[in-house]
Amino acid sequence: FFIAEALASDRVSATRVLAEHGIAASRNDEPVELSVGTFHHLCDALASACNLPFLGLDVATRIPRGTYGLLEFTLRNAPTLFSALEVFSTLAPLVKEAGLVQVEPIAGGARITEHVAVGPAGRQVGELAMALWVRIVREILGVASWAPDRVCFMHARPETIEPLVAFLGTA
Prior knowledge:
171 residues; mainly alpha; 50% helix
């Protein structure tokens, strides 16, 4: 649904890409099951076809609070941010097949590493996940200006990174 909202500006291209992946655009709200690898590829193809280079970032800003149910509730109600990150690293494999999430304490903070188990991560899904993480941490802390010290992605650096830097607060 959130991806559909972001693609509303170019429904013709989106419909074509969905059809190429065997998905009828007329399905409306019917769920579609995709492997993680197919989902990564589909999101990148949609972003390219619809000329939305920051589709993942856009979608991350549209996902309403509470979408991730009990997992999100647990994160938001943990006694500390580090506790929330530990809970996520423990529960994430139960709700997503993408891979392993590790949280490691470091001086003055924590390092979060997600190991993708499905081959190379798609750019859009990687940026969506990072932007969503940053957004949720800001909401948990109640500090809209919080930014990670550094972010790293598995995908190649895009031509421009200004929208990512603007949202994430770091390069």
